[in-house]
Structure formats: structure tokens, C-alpha cells
Amino acid sequence: MLIPCPHCGPRDLSEFSYQGDATRTRPDPASTDMKAWHDYVYNRPNPAGPHREYWQHAGGCRTHLLVTRDTLTHEVQAVAFARAALNDGAGKP
Amino acid sequence: MAEYSALSLLKNALTGNRDWKPAWRKPEPRPSYDVIIIGGGGHGLATAYYLAKEHGITNVAVLEKGWLGSGNIGRNTTIVRSNYLLPESVRFYDFSVKLWENLSHELNYNVMFSQRGILNLAHSPSQADDYIRRGNAMLHGGGDGVWLTPAEIARKVPGVDLSRSARFPVIGGLLQPRAGTARHDAVAWGYARAADRRGVDIVENCEVTGFLRDGEKIVGVATTRGEIRARKVAVAVAGSTSRLMGMAGIDRFPIESHVLQAFVSEAIKPFVDCVVTFGGGHLYMSQSDKGGLVFGGDLDGYNSYAQRGNLPLVEEVMGEMVAMFPAVARLRLLRSWGGIMDMSMDGSPIIAKGPLPGMYLNCGWCYGGFKATPASGFSFAWTIAKDEPHAVNAPFTLSRFERGAVIDEKGQGPTPKLH
Ligand SMILES: Cc1cc2nc3c(=O)[nH]c(=O)nc-3n(C[C@H](O)[C@H](O)[C@H](O)COP(=O)(O)OP(=O)(O)OC[C@H]3O[C@@H](n4cnc5c(N)ncnc54)[C@H](O)[C@@H]3O)c2cc1C
Ligand SMILES: [Zn+2]
Q1: Nearest CA among B381, B64, B49 for reference residue B187
Q2: How many structural domains is chain A composed of?
Q3: With a cut of 0.85, is the ipTM above it?
Q4: Segment holding B408, helix H or strand E
Q5: Which CATH class is domain B28-79+184-254+346-418?
Q6: pTM score, two decimals?
Q7: Cβ contact (<8 Å) for B305 and A41?
Q8: Residue to substitute from B251, B303, B318, interface A, most A β-carbons within 10 A
Q9: In the CATH hierarchy, which fold is given to the domain comprising B114-178+256-344?
Q10: Per-residue pLDDT tens over the stretch B17-62
Q11: CA distances from A25 to A21, A91, B25 (A)
Q12: Of A1, A13, A46, which is closest to B242 when you measure between CB atoms?
């Protein structure tokens, strides 16, 4: 599996560190809504198909990336900088 | 019902083995059952067997989308053990080991359960402390555990690199003598045959594609072979749990699916006679009766429904194998494969009624569901029959995540790839 890092180009999986589902939204830290916190901490959509997920290019430029990858085939469909994606709202579900 | 005996073997050998009955029938699914079990893996088949045997519920169908043994029950490295720390786990897995000890007799099918022991190598003083603490917890819970010094390890497993110059020198090891291995296919076939003989319909090539509902209540399933109704519907689909929950309208669940790879080498003469694990990384290995070394390591570490992994993990596992047993460096690999693991948020399983009325759920097995097969089937059948948990599965609820009552052996928190 190769992940095309926007800085470094296509690099081997072994250079990246997986950080999981990117569609979770943390409740407001002041929130005491137990249901919302439980859902954020423990529940995942775990799709069979396209999955939006965070990776860090830990063995390269160390940038955090937002990757869309098919969990049935491991095909990487899109890669963006996590920060840019979050700032324009694209990281939200 | 002892169809397999020395006498029957002899008789069939003399008649050219032409008169054996198929181990299970191939029935057409009926329009309705008392209980439907989705998933013909080890857990689904064991559940069907114990429903029939312990509770007299025989109007049961097991629906399997492929063939029996096509899932993780036929893909694992067959280690059976109960060397756990937390009391809930010790109780459950010790109960399972006890069922394993009598399983071949119980099923009249040789599952080749071999109590050859499991040795966890420790490589640092803190790891040794941790293992000894776990050993004490095992003894406390009524199980068995022994601490071995390097000299004792050298006698038991001569191939281990015990030199001080090793990258991770071995300073001792925790042995559970009653642990061991079993033949995974035989476990599926043995339970299937025993359940079939008690009247359970095992329906292969029958994929569940949706649930039939009456309001909130689940009253049956839609399948590739038509609709089938049931009073109770039990789900035991391991790595496919989230997909089945999705069909029931539950699109967020405390499970992630990950790929785990395993490997087998070419056959060699007897080399190791127990299961050995490497604590400098994560590796477990044993030698099969055919002579191949059977081993595996960590998950690949990313969500996956592909039953195959990637090369970095292969390299890592081989590196660990050679660090532990330098003598195997030139051995050739025969096969490797992958299976989809239902990784839960605390590393422990869920065996409970729900989450919807009429539904029962068995999942979250992570790396370790093979050893659990008998206890899982026994306690899941109990839960389905009586609508309340057995003492051994009572802590393994789905609601534990909401209540903060997680059972997290390693204290890793809700990051499934770390369990
Ligand atoms: C490489 C590897 C090594 C392992 N090593 C060990 C080990 O050493 N010790 C240990 O204790 N555990 C081990 N495990 C874990 C163990 O194999 C699993 O936890 C256990 O087998 C899961 O339960 P099961 O047997 O019921 O699962 P499975 O055999 O996977 O059964 C689930 C079944 O559900 C079926 N299914 C899915 N969706 C549908 C549908 N829609 N309709 C109908 N049927 C469906 C699947 O086809 C499958 O047959 C290992 C697993 C792997 C992959
Ligand atoms: Zn990079």
C-alpha cells in the first residue's frame, strides 16, 4: 500500500502511522451530555467501503493527513492535509 | 451416537471408506425457526450445538454466507489459553479451557486439543514484574501459571536465543501448562456435525442481506435464499458485525474491523513442543503436528475488510521470529493469509441480549476468539434460551461502554488497533 503524501509523493505504508476514523466530532469540552461523549469515545461507523481516516507521515515530513481509502480494496482515493481539510470544514462528517 | 470409533474406522477401511455418512445434511431453509443464528463460524456452530444439547431447542438454523470454516474459524493460529489478568476474563477463559479438555469426547470428533503449554517470554524487569503479577492473578482465579528462569527455558525450548547479546535478552517467562492448540477445522466440523445430529439446519451459501421487523422488534431475516422468520435472531459474524448492525439501522457501533495475518513455514522435524510468544514485540508461534511453524504477530493496524494484509507487517513478524529463534532464518514460508477481526473498544467481547428486541449479539473477539469458542457458544446459547446471561458472560455486555465498566486487559483505552 502506497500513500501519496502531498509533500513527499507516493511513499510506503511503513512510513505512516494510522490515527483512525476522521469523521468523529468531539463534543464541546464543557458539555455534560453523556450520550454525546459516549458516542464520540466508543462508537465508529466502521464502513466496508470508502473510509475517511487520519494518517501521519511519521517517517517523512511528519504532516497529518486526511486520507480517503476503500477498506474493501485498500485503494487510496484521496489525500489532503488534515489541517486544511479541517479548516474548510471538509473534515466534518 | 459414537459413530467414530476404532471399530468404525476399521470397518470403513475394509470397505474402501465408501460408506461414511456426510458429516452434516444440506437442508433447504424452512420458512421459520425458533432461533436463527447468523454466521457459521466456530461461535455460531457452537451456539447451535449448546442450544440443542443444553436447552432442548432444536428448531434452529445456522445461516452461513459462504462455506463452513471460510471465516476466522479456519484462519486462526489455534492457540487456546486463559492466561489473563482481570477476574472477568480469567473466569470466562478458564471455563472455556475446561470445556476444551472434554471437547473431543463431547462431540465424538477429534479436535486434537493438545495441552502443550504457552510460554510468554519476558525481556525486561518491568515486563517480568507484569507477567508475574498476571501469573499470580491466574493462580488467584483458580488457573495455572509457573514462572520459568532462563535456565529452565533453555531446557524446555532449546531453540530460543537466550544470549545476553540478543537485542531483547530473555530474562524469564510465564508458562501456562494447561494452554495449548487445537485443530481449528475440526472444531467447526465437530460442532456442525453434533448440532446437525440434534436436528439443527446448517444452511451454507445463504447470506443475510437484511432484517425483518415488526416495529422495533426483529422477527426474521432476508437472505439470498429468501425470507426466514424466527422468534429469536442471534448474530455471530465476527469481522462483519458492523455490516450486520448497519442492516438493522445501527450505523455506529463500538467495533472496528482490522486485518490480522498469519503464516506457516515448510515442515521441519520437531523443534518446539509448546506455544511461545516473544515479548520484545508481538509474536506467537507453535509447531503443527505436520511440522510447519504456525505464527503471527500484530494487526496491520488500519481498518480493513480485505482478507489480506500488506508487506511491512510481514517483514516485522519475520524479524521478530528470527530474533527469537535464529535457527529458523533460512526456513521458507509456505503460506500466509489474513482474516477480518472484530476489534472492540476495550479488547473484550460482547455476548449479550440486544441491541434490538428479538436480537442477540456475539462479537468483539479481537485476536482471541478461537480459544473462546466453547465458552462463547455455551454462554450465548444460555443467554438466547433464558433471556438472561450466564455467570461467565454477564460482565460482557454492550452497555458497559456507557456505564464506564470496560474490561480492558491492557489498559489501552478505546483505540482498537492496540488491543
Ligand atoms: C490470522 C488469525 C489468527 C488468529 N489466531 C487466534 C489464536 O491463536 N487464538 C485464538 O483464540 N483466536 C485467534 N484468532 C481469532 C479467532 O479466529 C476469531 O476470534 C474467531 O474465529 C471468531 O469467531 P467465529 O469463529 O465465529 O468467526 P468466523 O469463522 O469469522 O465466523 C463468522 C461467519 O459469519 C459469516 N457471515 C458474515 N456475514 C454474514 C452474512 N451477512 N450472512 C451470513 N453469514 C455471514 C462469515 O462468512 C463467517 O463464516 C485469529 C484470527 C485470525 C484471523
Ligand atoms: Zn510527507
Answers
A1: B49
A2: 1
A3: yes
A4: none
A5: alpha beta
A6: 0.96
A7: no
A8: B303
A9: D-Amino Acid Oxidase; Chain A, domain 2 (3.30.9)
A10: 998 889 999 999 999 999 999 999 999 999 999 999 999 999 999 9
A11: 10, 9, 50
A12: A46
